[in-house]
Design goal:
Blueprint: H1 2-25, E1 29-37, E2 46-51, E3 63-64, E4 69-77, E5 81-89, E6 98-103, E7 108-111, E8 120-126, E9 139-140, E10 146-153, E11 164-168, E12 184-187, E13 195-202, E14 208-212, E15 224-225, H2 226-230, E16 241-247, E17 259-260, H3 263-271, E18 279-280, E19 286-287, E20 290-293, E21 296-306, H4 315-323, E22 326-330, E23 335-336, E24 338-342, E25 349-357, E26 367-372, E27 382-386, E28 395-400, E29 413-417, E30 429-434, E31 438-439, E32 460-469, E33 475-485
Parallel strand pairs: 1-8, 10-16, 29-33
Antiparallel strand pairs: 1-4, 2-5, 3-4, 5-6, 5-7, 8-9, 10-13, 11-14, 12-13, 14-15, 16-17, 18-19, 20-21, 21-25, 22-23, 22-26, 24-25, 26-27, 28-30, 30-31, 32-33
Length: about 500
């Protein structure tokens, strides 16, 4: 009887095994292409450790594309998971030579049951990705939609709980004030512990959105569109993926110069903390790090830092902490004492500061301002920059009468009739501008002395001086001549 049962058991097991093999042979299949992006675009010796289905380690990528590198896994069963780790290989000819100290992601577990059979699926993974119970850490494009892969980084690591997007021409347009919470943690960097990513798909190629936390006061961008992400000259196609990168410049920021379409520019702006040099915005206003006055230094950082004052119980101590971030020294290393540091104490994050000094800077010297959060962790931010001092004098330009406009100093001659009362309308018109102070016309004067007088009763040339001084004490003088002569 035992032999019979054993025989039946063997037969039954054989039937099960055959059924299993048949089922495995008939399992639905698909091709999966995993695209991987390193934030610095450095793919030296980067391969993929993979498991599940037919996947295995690959010391070399299948190829490269505009996103980065990619790995192709064919004839994968549409069930279970495809595991993926971007990792360095010590021997690119040997698929089993992974350097586990060179991991660029943790386990990324792609659920294959979510994909259609007999198709090629494109999946996107970023450096620092790690799958968890609440975070898939991979982003799949839909073949029958237009896809916008949206990457958002706040260098201050301050992400509101209500952070999301407002969309239009999407398959599900949420109302204004109700952000679609599409973001998950897509990766990380040594400069930013969490980078948000979302794949947003739509049946409409005019898909657009903005990042915000529910109101105008916390907008992070202006309009971000699928067409801008793929390039205006590119014809949109179903299944296509456009990538837009955004780095935060604070709240209510809609200029959109923080929206870029290359990872190189994104990495430079989002991860490389530095002090911005002096420049001008689209309206011609000064920006960056410079000294508008001898006792003031404006500082602008490339990325935001968390504001310790906003939620502090001891506001005074927190304000002193912010002031402690700054040091000003001259070229000999002497410290210039800081009286106070002004900033927007109500803001969540900060990147603009006004340093009030205890003494005036000397524009014949050189000075450096240093910013240092003084953290002992890798989150510390430190940078230095030479302060742009005002060493340029204002300009005085004559605008009337026409005979002296544009003429050299000795040729600026205005005829005044002899033996007549001086006509005040003879005094020339002029304007004065300064690169820092703007319009100084009202501050132009004729200094007392030899070159300030005219006597219409005495024939001859009378040299007149105009003088103007800017905030930094830079002085400009221009001259012209009143020529007293007999008029026929």
């Amino acid at each position: 009887m035992k032999k019979l049962l054993l025989s039946l058991s063997i037969i039954f097991s054989g039937i099960l095994m055959s059924s299993f093999l048949f089922a495995a042979e008939e399992a639905d299949k698909a091709t999966f292409i995993v695209h991987y992006q390193n934030w610095e675009s450095d793919y030296t010796n980067i391969g993929a450790h993979a498991w599940g289905g037919t996947a295995g380690p690959m010391a070399k990528p299948t190829g490269t594309d505009d996103f980065g590198i990619f790995f192709k896994y064919e004839n994968m069963p549409v069930q279970g998971e495809l595991g993926f780790i971007a990792v360095k290989f010590t021997d690119t000819e040997n698929n089993s030579s992974q350097d586990w100290n060179g991991k660029q992601t943790d386990d990324v577990k792609i659920k294959l049951d979510d994909f259609a059979k007999d198709q090629t699926h494109h999946i996107y993974v970023f450096q620092g990705a790690a799958t968890s119970a609440t975070n898939p850490a991979y982003y799949a494009a839909k073949n029958d939609k237009y896809n916008l892969l949206l990457v958002y980084a706040d260098p201050a690591n301050k992400y509101e709980e209500n952070l999301g997007v407002h969309m239009w021409n999407s398959d599900a347009d949420p109302g204004w004030g109700e952000p679609a919470k599409v973001f998950t943690k897509g990766g990380s960097h040594t400069a930013i512990s969490e980078i948000k990513v979302a794949m947003i798909s739509s049946s409409n190629a005019d898909l657009g959105m903005l990042i915000y936390a529910g109101g105008d006061e916390n907008k992070k961008t202006g309009d971000v569109t699928f067409k801008n992400a793929i390039g205006e000259e590119t014809t949109a196609a179903l299944g296509q993926v456009g990538v837009a990168y955004v780095y935060s410049k604070g709240d209510a920021y809609t200029k959109n110069d923080n929206v870029v379409y290359s990872v190189e520019e994104f990495a430079r702006e989002a991860f490389s903390f530095r002090l911005l040099p002096m420049g001008r915005d689209n309206q011609g206003l000064l920006t960056g790090t410079y000294a508008p006055r001898p006792n003031q230094v404006f500082v602008e950082t490339s990325s935001n830092v968390a504001n310790p004052v906003k939620d502090a119980v001891d506001k005074e101590a927190a304000t002193k902490e912010v002031a402690s971030w700054f040091t000003v020294k001259d070229s000999a290393g002497a410290v210039v004492k800081i009286k106070e540091v002004q900033f927007n104490a109500a803001a969540e994050t900060l990147n603009k500061f006004v340093i009030i000094l205890d003494a005036n800077l000397d524009n014949t010297k050189e000075y450096v301002v240093t910013f240092d959060l003084k953290l002992t962790t890798e989150d510390n931010k430190k940078a230095s920059l030479a302060i742009d001092l005002d060493k340029e004098a204002p300009v005085i330009s004559f605008v009337s009468p026409s005979e002296i406009v544009g003429e050299e100093e000795g040729d600026r001659i205005i005829i005044v009739e002899w033996n007549k009362k001086f006509d005040q309308n003879k005094f020339p018109g002029f304007i004065s501008t300064d690169d820092r102070d703007g319009d100084l016309t009202k501050l132009v004067f004729v200094p007392k002395g030899e070159f300030s007088k005219i006597n219409t009763n005495v024939l001859g040339d009378y040299k007149i001086v105009l003088r103007v001084e800017d905030t930094w004490g830079n002085v400009t003088e221009e001259t012209f001549i009143f020529r007293v002569q007999k008029v026929k």
